[in-house]
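so im writing up the methods section and need the Gfo/Idh/MocA family oxidoreductase record in one place, dumping it here so i stop losing it
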Amino acid sequence: MKTVANPSQRLRLGFVGGGLESSIGATHRYAAQLDGHFELVAGVFARDPARNRAAAQAYGVAPERVYPDFQRMAVAEAARADGVQAVAIMAPNAVHVPASLAFLDQGIDVICDKPLASSLAEAQQLLERARKGPALHLLTHNYSGYPLVREARELIARGAIGEVRLVQVEHASAFGTHPLEQQGVKALAWRTDPAQAGASSVLADVGVHAHQLLRFVTGQEVSEVSAELSTLVPGRQSDDNAHVKLRLQNGARGMLWASFVAAGHRHGLQLRVFGSTGSLYWHQEEPDRLELRHQDQPHQILRRGEAWLSESARLSTRIKAGQPEGLLEAFANIYSEAAERIMARREHRAPSAQSLLCPTAEDGVRGMRFIDACVRSDAADGRWTQA
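--- predicted struct ---
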């Protein structure tokens, strides 16, 4: 089970984004601090100066470490003896690459929200820079932090369901069912603005999570896609629904549904993997339950926290079986693994094997390559397109 870090070993963390009105900002903040690995000490939390200062005050950040933009923050913090050791970026998609580059160039490790970029070209530029080091670039695909997602990964790797043949994954939410961006709701306005979100709003917002979950659990890459991207809410400037047929590298077939107009759904992330001898089913709204269904044996329901789960699942668990864990704990697993990767780099040692599960810019580029292939396939009336 997880242990809380020694306060003397906390990493100094900065934020880009995450103001008081940001729900994802609150999630990042709670997750970063849950295991005691990080202390928030600096940031640019909002473009508006008053909102920027208000967030800093609420978070206990000293006034002199509140910055008007990420460029000045990166330079100023790098010059301080007590400057930030890592920065978390949770601004709109178009900010991810320029902000990441600003801190990487100062030798400051980056923890960035998904998607990696707003275009594949930008993502590849960032990856090339990150590979040069020394600073790390890590990505918060937080759903891969759930203990039973990691158990599913281990079961497939051990051959518990045989060879993977079929995958059904969906992230079908309802937050964009109504045209709230046309009513001035800021949280949806940038998500449905191609200039800020990228070429496919729905894939950048929820589709990349489904894509990464598929890759993480099965160990398979998507080789080709046949996609239909749709705009179902009248007057919307971006797509809001995607149906994507998949071909995987091992010859398996799959389907990915990404939507934010699935009326009546709440979160809607779930995964089914069918192998030659059995299948697995996991639903994010019931994250402590994993169904292992054998073709010729009794079915099993696996629960988080049980002693017979894999080491990877146990290391991702905080609370004993029977007590629910959820989104914040899964997100905190990513932050704790990021902390271990960052500390290992600074201490010139190998990181723990568990921390290598933390997604990186490499994963981000694969996500952007998937989006790019889907956009090209849709433009060609669903033609099979290499991913």
